[in-house]
Design a protein that fits this description.
The complex is a heterodimer of chains A (about 575) and B (about 300).
Chain A (H helix, E strand, L loop, with lengths): L3 E9 L8 E8 L4 E5 L6 H9 L1 H4 L4 E8 L2 E2 L5 H4 L3 E4 L12 H11 L4 H14 L15 H13 L5 E5 L7 H18 L2 E5 L12 E6 L2 E6 L1 H11 L6 H9 L8 H10 L28 H14 L14 E9 L5 E10 L4 E6 L5 H8 L7 E6 L2 E5 L12 H4 L2 H6 L15 H13 L5 E7 L7 H16 L3 E5 L3 H7 L2 E6 L2 E7 H4 L9 H5 L9 H26 L1
Helix pairs in contact in A: 4-5, 4-6, 9-20, 16-17
Chain B lengths: L17 H4 L2 H17 L3 H17 L3 H26 L6 E8 L3 E6 H27 L2 H11 L1 H30 L8 H28 L18 H23 L16 H15 L11
Antiparallel strand pairs in B: 1-2
Helix pairs in contact in B: 2-3, 2-5, 2-9, 3-4, 3-5, 3-10, 4-5, 6-7, 7-8, 9-10
């Protein structure tokens, strides 16, 4: 019997003019790992909520058809009852914890179902061990990081050992390390306990290798339902925005079949003789400051001292070869909490006008705090921040910037024009799509009388599909080309590769790498694009387009050498 | 740890103390018995002993600093206000120590020793009750308290869960909104209209948050029928027994003292504050009962 069955399901939210789901029918078998893909607003989350019974019980609206979750008809059973068959994990970890301690949080679902105390205690221990969160059991939920909270929420969804787990973009707020760990845990769960998984994810390159099947939603209906390679072939023809970087790379070079992951891609390239020798890990990554004048081989502190001396001797500021003042300069910035840890530890960072800098690091590394210092929301406890002009700072939730009922009241017309929202002046800001809301918030922060010298963005791509990300990346690149210094904190390596010129990697409040993007994002496992992982970062290839040239050159060289060998043999 | 998450309100944190080692409902009953004892007695010496008992219990439980801070910042101003108001308003005392003349609406205002002492005693009582409640907040596991409460009234417990979860979430939302407004080139909601818009945005955000949390609770089975829930019968620890016995003892002693009028105190019309061996004995017993469970520090690691 299938664990999930949709039979001609149509659904409209209350008051909505168009249906969120249209005649959706599919079945999910026990042990299947299914990825639910699609652009924003295509109906993925609604489908997931229908599977959990929240649609229509919790949201109301017009519902037709049948959804059977674990053999339970969702029209006849409440979400609380359906939760015994299907665990659900939503996007925002903050709103998914209810209790004070992790142990109580894990126990809650079973206690609500009237399980015996011994059963609850055993399930809590086993779930915590399985997910690697046993060390968190006695911790206060308010003290947990985003990644830890998400794993606790996953534990809550799994504790009753459901046959199906439903996940709505569970990695969208996690750093690459925590995101990959979560997907790996889901894969292990799927392999070892035969739990079926239905996962919504925008960063498909992260999860396709683990998937058995991909369902694509478009405008509330199923547009494609195939295995990962079949899906990638479909995407190349019908919806290129859903292609993974690896698939785009193969398409550019004319290789087939498209790879569902790094391992498959490397195997195909190896078989074609296009894979170079593996370079020594981190060999390309030089921890030197990007603009350090002399002393490149010295330790960091000596290098900084030498750079300052060099600057004094040459009558200009360190890190600025053109003599123009930097748009933003941080010198020895510390942020230390009273009775708490130091969030930033002696940050030295300079941004030149027109530079597009990507700030990366794990959750809690200090990225958001650094941006708040840049935007003058926080004062350093030590060190100084100098700005050449206003810093337009866009924090994580664009909706927090909206005050008015109409788009045209939020920002001046020229700012709306620049953000490509000139035709949407009469719309309500909250009715805009995710990408449009982002651009409206950008128009607001950039729209003052004093032009901004720096544009700083904190995690601007949360919940965005690949098309919206590409649009934002192009827009940011244009702003940088116009002379604005752009500083973006992001977990999304693919997005970073689309517009950035320099990357700064933070760890525990310190800069651990600062250099050209091609150096920093090609040397590691986690902070690297899929293309870089496929090619071991050869020739600094981050994006499929650049890597395709390299592969074509390799192919030409290979065929030339083969021709020579053939000629010699004859 | 993020900067936003760094500021935390006064809240429960598991510490290595006998009171934290006791189960939430037991710790709650212990704090409740201290508060009840203060409500049952009016004698300043007994209330003083109870104040010492609460502060001593807080210190032994490792939350003494939080209690004194709360007392200084929140409870003491209210106590001072109650003393002032009672001294100005009460007309029942006979021993006048200051005549302040005619005060418009209040008329002739005479300050009496009795009104002042009654105000002080009332304030002291209020202080002990507030500190005993804070002791429960800081040392009784809220999850265990909620679990116990849910057996009696699931819907009320659901409301409490939602409210307790929403407070920190909405606090973070408010800080985020304030920061976003500071990032606007115009400085955000400075005008009256702007502030109204900000309030509207905050309310809309709060409703969204409430819906999110409610959906999660639903999926954790909170809406499931109450039937079939099993009562937890975990074995009682030595600290459960000690604090339960202490709570019973405190309640019994206070009831006995109230019934036998051992600690009878009268403020009006003239002060009557009996100071005798029985009162001292009662004070010593209450202190001993309250602090004795802290002597056993075995098995208290978090």
């Amino acid at each position: 019997m299938s664990v999930l069955r949709f039979d001609a399901v149509s659904y409209s939210y209350p008051g909505a003019s168009r249906a969120a789901l249209r005649e959706v029918s599919f079945e999910l078998e026990p042990g299947e790992f299914c990825v639910l893909a699609g652009l924003s607003g295509s109906g993925k989350s609604t489908l997931l909520r229908a599977a959990a019974g929240l649609v229509p019980h919790f949201h109301g609206g017009d519902f037709a058809g049948t959804v059977s979750t674990g053999g339970m008809d969702t029209r006849e059973h409440q979400p609380a009852a359906i939760a015994t068959r299907a665990g659900t994990l939503l996007q925002d970890p903050e709103t998914q914890v209810v209790m004070t301690s992790v142990r109580a949080e894990l126990a809650l679902a079973l206690e609500n179902r009237g399980q015996r105390a011994g059963t609850v205690a055993r399930a809590v221990e086993e779930t915590a061990l399985a997910l690697g969160i046993a060390h968190l059991l006695e911790r206060h939920t308010a003290e947990l990081s985003g990644g830890e909270l998400q794993r606790v929420a996953l534990g809550c969804a799994l504790i009753a050992r459901p046959a199906l787990i439903l996940l709505d973009e569970p990695t969208s707020q996690l750093d690459p390390v925590a995101g990959d760990e979560l997907i790996w845990q889901l894969h292990r769960l799927n392999e070892e306990s035969d739990t079926a998984v239905l996962l919504i994810e925008h960063r498909l390159e992260r999860c396709l290798a683990a998937a058995d099947r991909v369902i694509v939603m478009a405008d509330g209906a199923i547009a494609c339902d195939r295995d990962p390679r079949g899906f990638l072939e479909w995407a190349a023809r019908s919806e290129p925005a859903l292609q993974t970087p690896g698939a785009r790379l193969f398409e550019e070079v004319g290789l087939r079949p498209p790879p569902a992951g790094v391992k498959q891609a490397r195997a195909t390239l190896r078989a074609s003789g296009l894979l170079g020798a593996r370079e020594e890990p981190f060999a390309r990554q030089q921890p030197a400051a990007p603009n350090a004048a002399p002393g490149g081989a010295l330790p960091a502190r000596s290098r900084a001292r030498a750079a300052r001396l060099y600057a004094r001797l040459h009558g200009r500021r360190a890190g600025d070869p053109d003599g123009a003042p930097p748009a933003l300069s941080m010198r020895g910035v510390w942020h230390e909490l009273r009775n708490g840890p130091a969030i930033l530890r002696g940050i030295d960072l300079q941004l030149r006008p027109g530079e597009a800098v990507v700030l990366m690091g794990r959750n809690g590394a200090g990225k958001s705090t650094l941006l708040r210092h840049a935007g003058d929301l926080l004062e350093p406890t030590r060190g100084s921040v100098q700005r050449a002009g206003r810093v337009a700072l866009l924090l994580q939730n664009p909706g927090d910037y909206f005050l008015h009922e109409r788009v045209r009241d939020e920002a001046p017309p020229e700012a709306l024009q620049m953000a490509g929202l000139a035709g949407l002046g009469e719309r309500h800001p909250r009715d805009l799509s995710g990408g449009q809301r982002q651009r409206l918030a950008l128009a607001i922060v950039l729209g003052g009388e004093e032009p901004a010298a720096v544009l700083a963005l904190d995690e601007p791509t949360r919940g965005m599909d690949r098309a919206a990300k590409a649009l934002l990346a192009r827009w940011l690149a244009q702003r940088a080309a116009a002379g604005l210094a752009v500083l973006v904190a992001t977990h999304d390596c693919e997005f970073a590769a689309e517009f950035g010129s320099r990357a700064v990697l933070l760890a525990r409040g310190r800069v651990i790498a600062d250099g050209p993007l091609e150096e920093v994002l090609t040397g590691g496992w986690y902070f690297a694009t899929e293309t870089a992982r496929i090619l071991d970062g050869a020739a600094g290839s981050l994006a499929p387009e650049g890597a395709a040239e390299l592969l074509r050159a390799r192919r030409t060289a290979r065929s030339a050498s083969m021709q020579v060998a053939e000629a010699v043999r004859r | 740890m993020s900067v936003l998450g760094a500021a935390r309100p006064l809240a429960y944190r598991r510490l290595a103390s006998p009171l934290h080692a006791a189960r939430g409902p037991v710790a709650g009953a212990y704090g409740g018995s201290l508060a009840l004892s203060a409500l049952l007695s009016e004698h300043p010496l007994v209330l003083g002993a109870l104040l010492l008992a609460v502060l001593g219990a807080g210190a032994c439980a490792g939350v003494g600093r939080q209690l004194t801070r709360f007392g200084a910042l929140t409870a003491l101003p209210i106590v001072t206000l109650s003393v002032l108001v009672n001294a100005l308003v009460s007309r029942q005392g006979l021993t006048v120590f200051a005549r302040l003349g005619d005060w418009l609406v209040l008329g002739q205002v005479n300050l009496t020793v009795e009104a002042l002492v009654y105000g002080l005693v009332f304030g002291l009582r209020l202080l002990v009750v507030a500190l005993a409640c804070m002791l429960v907040v800081c040392a009784a596991d809220p999850d265990e308290l909620l679990l116990a409460f849910r057996r009696f009234s699931p819907s009320s417990a659901l409301t409490v869960s939602l409210a307790t979860r929403l407070i920190p979430v909405l606090g973070q939302d408010a800080r985020r909104l304030a920061e976003a407004q500071r990032c606007r080139p115009d400085g955000g909601a400075r005008s009256l209209r702007g502030r109204a818009a900000l309030v509207r945005a905050s309310v809309a955000g709060a409703l969204d948050r409430a819906l999110d949390v409610a959906a999660v609770l639903e999926m954790r089975g909170y809406g499931a029928p109450a039937g079939g829930r099993e009562r937890h019968r975990a074995r009682r620890s030595r600290h459960d027994l000690a604090f339960a016995a202490s709570a019973c003892g405190l309640t019994a002693m206070s009831l006995l003292a109230a019934a036998s009028a051992t600690d009878s105190f009268r403020a009006y019309p003239l002060l009557h504050v009996p100071v005798n061996a029985a009162v001292f004995g009662l004070c010593a017993t209450l202190l001993l009962l309250a602090l004795a469970p802290f002597a056993d520090r075995r098995g208290i690691d978090p």
